[in-house]
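Help: read this over?
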Amino acid sequence: MKPDPEKPWITRPRPNPGAALRVICFPYAGGGSSVFRTWPGELPANIELWAIELPGRETRAKERPLRLMTELITQLTNAVAPLLKPPFALYGHSLGALAGFRFARELRRRGGPQPVHLFVSGRRAPQLPEPSPMHGLPDAQFIERLRRLGGVSEAVLAEPELMAYFLPIIRADISLVEGEPYVEEPPLAVPITALGGLTDDKASAAELEAWRTQTTAGFEHEMFPGGHFFIQTARPAFLGALSRHLARVTAAP
C-alpha cells in the first residue's frame, strides 16, 4: 500500500472509487495499516477499505507515537473528517475498537456525518473499567502479558533488537486505551455489532454485550473460536461473518 503524502492517516489497499460503502479500519495496539492489506480480497466487491495508519509505525515510523486518546482523536478527525463522504462504516479491533468509537463521538460533537454502522471486536465496552492495566508494567512483565495475549509472534518477542523497536510503540498504544478515564455521553444513534473470541479474557461475551448501552439503534454480538486475536486464528470465519454483516449494511435503504 502506498500512502498519499497529503493524507498520511489513510491507506487504501485496493482503491474502489465506485464502492457502495467505505469501511474505515482501525488497527490494534502495535499494528499498522498492513493489518488490513489483504482484507479487500475477502470482503464484498462493492466495499472500499480505508486503513488508518497511526503515528509511529510503518509509513509513519519517523513520527512520535501518541499516548493520549484525546490527542489522537483530535488529530485524526482534523485530517480525516474533510475526506468523508457518506455512506461509511467503522471497524476496529481492541485499541482500534475504542478509537473507532471515540472517532464516531467526535464526528457527532462537530456536527459531521455519522457512520452507518460501527463494528467493534476484541474490546470490552468502553464504560467498563480495565481490571488489570498494563501500560505501566516493567518490561519483563509487560512482554509476558503480550505473550499471553498472542498478538506478537514468539520470534519477535525473543529478539531483543526487534522488541527495542516495537516495545515503545505498543506501550504507547496501550496508554491510549488505559490513560484516560471514560467520559459519559449520550449513546450513538448508530447500529453497533460487537465481535469477540470465546476464550478472550480481555473481552468476554458479557463485556461485549455491554456495548448495547452505547447505541440507540440496533445491536448484536457474535463470538468466534479463539482468544484475543481470533481475527487471525479464526480469520476465514471472522471475515466471512464481517462480509455478511457488510452485505446487509449495503443492502439497507
About this structure: The chain has eight helices and seven strands. The first helix runs from residue 69 to 80. The mean pLDDT is 91.
